[in-house]
Design goal:
The protein has 299 residues and is an alpha/beta fold. It is built from 8 helices and 12 strands. Helices cover 32% and strands 26% of the residues.
Length: 299
């Protein structure tokens, strides 16, 4: 899904909302200490008292539909709820209004877990620390299936992991890097696990027709090549796991044909066999092509 719009129209906030949900469920904001402030950022253009931030998302995990939502302010979770459709019919898993909970299954056990959940933590998170079967799969979707990339944070970690694994994982990364920069014939990893050093191997032909190889550190490559390197591992990982990949400004610092190639990989069912999904924001009108995207994929 491609999201277009003017500057300050709110495109990036769609991506940030999805990723903040993930951070609150299983990321950096998932385990606040009692009394810690929540990542509350209310609407700025309002006089007087501000409303809570509220999120709701509907998703599928292992063929079962879930609807999960919560709201919060600076200090506490105000409400939280989870529904599922195990037999095609809606059923409540739990609901919460501040410290008041309602459950349908394993009521006494879950009331005990609710009592261990501080006012500034999500029950979906805290219950899974105690292996709660009723909320496990709903939680795993956030942990396993929702991946994100924003322009302010570029990480090579996923691509480096693929190179470290070797075999088909590394082969696929090298293949895509050859597409990004026709001179690259290999990617080599050195250094330590904590401080890896990524080098690219270039094969060049001199005036006499002799082939020679030269090595560059990744930081010496063009910004576009570095950006493609950081993204290709995330793309491969998402397609292997059938994840939902959300990306802000997909075209940032990359050649338009490389951007198009990343989208085509997701659209190609022979490559994307596990049905990974891509949601991205962009200003690139060159992607407004009905040979690339259906009309209903453009917002």
């Amino acid at each position: 899904m491609a999201i277009y719009g003017a500057n300050a129209a709110g495109k990036s906030n769609v991506i940030h909302a999805l990723l903040l949900m993930r951070e609150m469920v299983c990321g950096s904001f998932a385990k606040p200490l009692k009394g810690d402030e929540l990542p509350y950022e209310p609407f700025a253009f309002v006089d007087g008292e501000t409303d809570p931030t509220a999120f709701e998302i509907i998703y599928y995990y292992d063929g079962i539909k879930y609807a999960y939502g919560f709201s919060f302010d600076n200090d506490r979770i105000i409400n939280e709820y989870l529904y599922h459709w195990p037999n095609g019919r809606e059923a409540l898993v739990f609901s919460r209004e501040k410290d008041q909970y309602e459950f349908r299954e394993s009521i006494q056990e879950q009331l005990t877990l609710a009592g261990r959940t501080s006012e500034n933590r999500l029950y979906l998170t805290s219950s899974n620390e105690w292996n709660c079967a009723q909320t496990e799969k709903a939680y795993l979707w956030f942990q396993q299936k929702l991946r994100g990339l924003i322009t302010t944070g570029v990480s090579n970690e996923t691509t480096i992991d693929a190179i470290r694994k070797g075999g088909e994982d590394k082969k696929n990364v090298v293949k895509e890097m050859m597409l990004a920069d026709l001179g690259i014939c290999n990617v080599v990893l050195s250094g330590t696990k904590e401080k890896p050093i990524v080098s690219t191997v270039h094969q060049l032909t001199d005036d006499n027709g002799n082939q020679k190889q030269y090595t560059l550190q990744l930081g010496q490559e063009s910004v576009g090549t570095q950006r493609f390197f950081s993204r290709i591992g995330l793309w491969m990982d998402a397609m292997n796991s059938g994840a939902v990949l959300v990306v802000d400004e997909i075209e940032a610092s990359m050649h338009p044909l490389l951007t198009r190639h990343l989208i085509e990989m997701i659209q190609d069912q022979t490559i994307n066999q596990n049905h990974a999904q891509l949601i991205f924001t962009t200003h690139d009108t060159g992607l407004l092509d009905l040979k690339l995207l259906r009309r209903d994929q453009i917002w």
